[in-house]
Design the sequence.
C-alpha cells in the first residue's frame, strides 16, 4: 500500500540510532509496524493470565507415548 506520511524528524533520527541493518525510512517504518504488532500480541496473551484453567490430570508425556 502506498501512502504519504509526515514523520517526526527527531523520532526518526533516534530510531536510526538503535537500528543496525535499517538504512531507509521505509524499512524503519516497516520494522516499527512489525514490532508494534508483535508487542500487541504479547499484551493480548498477558491479558489471559488467570483466565485459563488447566486440567490437573493432564499428562503431556502420556499423550506423547513416553510412558
Sequence:
Amino acid at each position: 500500500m502506498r501512502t504519504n506520511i509526515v514523520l517526526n524528524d527527531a523520532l526518526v533520527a533516534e530510531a536510526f540510532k538503535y537500528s543496525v541493518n535499517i538504512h531507509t525510512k521505509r524499512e524503519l517504518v516497516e520494522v516499527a509496524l512489525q514490532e508494534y504488532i508483535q508487542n500487541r500480541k504479547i499484551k493480548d496473551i498477558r491479558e489471559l493470565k488467570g483466565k485459563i484453567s488447566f486440567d490437573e490430570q493432564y499428562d503431556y508425556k502420556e499423550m506423547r507415548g513416553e510412558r
